[in-house]
Specification:
Pfam families: Aminotran_3. The protein is α/β, with parallel strands linked by helices and 461 residues long. It is built from 16 helices and 15 strands.
Length: 461
């Protein structure tokens, strides 16, 4: 592989381009002269190898909820390493995993009391798939193996999680995937009070799919409280209550994939709580440790766990991982969640989230290239179009230029890092650290205003 080595700060970049595989990254970006190399971080900002400061407007990847370089979280990791760097949760326990699981049980809705720790969001979803299948098998319903998920939803990259994912672009290279997964319409364009939720097509489609597949064959419905794929889709009023009703009616488990939506991103500990529903399982990762250590998990309702373990067809959940509930990662989770609680970070999101939304709406009103602003809390998507007033969409060429040239250049120009997104539309994802104050949000909005200006200039000249 040819390595580009121009300029005076190329050592790390050259090594990255030669040896470090990039996730979801085109080769021209990987090998480009503008590939960023960040060397330190503090608060809501990152610093590259040339010392330039960037606002981390995406909180890493929707995960650095408490901001960068927290000495208390770092100290918790160091202390745990010195005390006991590793011990397993296979037929044993250790204090940080017990404390983390107990803390999560206090915060999770309803009787979601038991957590299996893993290492990532994809593994958390994989765990939920396996639990759903084994639970039904333990109850004498081994035919319940199918999954209902939503179009454009992203649930992870392991083969099971990728099967549940509804994004054909990232599924296609790995076909065939897990059989028995059916995708139904998401909630795009349906939000707020749309009348009785049970009359909405996005709800009716879920029950119709269960009936058509045969309820006796369906294990679970997977959904995010606010769907990331297709751009921060907030559900209509009553949607989650209807999901709960439908699943209860047909004996199907309801799984809330909260890899992004948990630990404060929506202003609540869990997104399910924001919508007043107790699912059967919650998957989480990202914000549980604010990115300071890898950790994911699946939380299950205690009666389901008891039923699986008490059944002669069950007896144990046949699942595990060497690093699941790693002492250092769970110690970090305890320090992170405790700090989030003690510093009232969720109050910050609930107070400033509407102000962030208002700032984004103001930018939208100034530019007809903004088709929509969606989201809640500290989680938003800006969708672009050619002309909102005329109903004209971007051409394929315009979209590619915005995503691959205009926005990346605007990130460098403004010093604000966000995420261009092409999953079903041309979008910009916004997800600042939950500790961001009005000054930081002002910096964020100023950067976004410049980005949208540049998009408008690219489209209209």
């Amino acid at each position: 592989m040819t390595v580009t080595t121009t300029g005076t700060h190329t050592g790390l970049r050259a090594k990255a381009q030669a040896h470090l595989g990039q996730h979801f990254t085109r080769r021209d970006v990987w090998q480009g002269e503008e590939l960023p190399v960040f060397v330190r971080s503090e608060g809501c900002h990152l610093y590259d190898e040339q010392g330039r400061r960037f606002l981390d407007g995406l909180a890493g990847l929707f995960c650095v909820n408490m901001g960068h370089s927290r000495s208390d979280i770092v100290a918790a990791a160091a202390e745990q390493m010195e005390t006991m760097a590793y011990s397993t949760n296979w037929g044993a326990a250790h204090p940080p995993s017990v404390e983390a699981a107990s803390l999560i049980a206090e915060l999770a809705p309803g009787d979601l009391d038991v957590t299996w720790f893993v290492n990532s969001g994809s593994e958390a979803v994989e765990t939920a798939i396996k639990f759903a299948r084994q639970y039904h098998r333990s109850q004498g319903q081994a035919g319940r193996t199918k999954i209902i998920s939503r179009s454009m939803a992203y649930h992870g990259v392991t083969l099971g999680a990728l099967s549940v994912t509804g994004l054909e672009k990232i599924r296609e290279p790995f076909m065939p995937l897990l059989e028995g997964v059916r995708h139904v319409p998401n909630t795009l364009g349906v939000t707020g009070d749309q009348g009785p939720a049970d009359a909405l097509e996005c709800v009716r489609a879920i029950e119709r799919a269960i009936i058509e597949e045969g309820p006796e064959t369906v294990a679970a419905v997977f959904a995010e409280p606010v769907q990331n794929g297709r751009g921060a889709l907030v559900p209509p009023d009553g949607y989650w209550q209807e999901l709960r009703r439908i699943c209860d009616r047909h004996g199907v488990l309801l799984v809330a994939d909260e890899v992004i939506c948990s630990f404060g991103r929506l202003g609540h500990w869990f997104g399910s709580g924001a919508f007043g529903t107790v699912p059967d399982m919650i998957t989480f990762a990202k914000g549980a440790t604010s990115g300071y250590a890898p950790l994911g998990g699946m939380i299950a309702r205690e009666p389901l766990v008891r039923a699986l373990y008490d059944s002669p067809l069950g007896g144990t959940f046949t699942h595990g991982a060497t690093w699941g509930g790693h002492p250092v990662s769970t110690a970090v989770a305890v320090a992170n969640i405790t700090a989030m609680r003690d510093e009232h970070v969720l109050d910050n999101v609930r107070t400033l989230g509407p102000e962030l939304r208002a700032g984004l709406e103001e930018i939208k009103q100034r530019h007809r290239v903004v088709k929509d602003v969606r989201g809640m809390g500290f989680f938003y998507a800006i969708e672009f179009t050619a002309d909102r007033d005329a109903g004209a969409e971007l051409s394929e060429e315009q979209s590619a230029r915005v995503l691959r040239e205009v926005l990346p250049a605007a990130f460098r120009k403004t010093g604000v890092v966000l995420r261009p997104d092409d999953r079903g539309a041309t979008m910009l994802m916004v997800s600042p650290p939950l500790v961001a104050d009005r000054e930081v949000l002002g910096e964020l909005l100023a950067g976004i205003a410049v980005m949208v200006d540049d998009v408008a200039h690219s489209v209209h000249g």
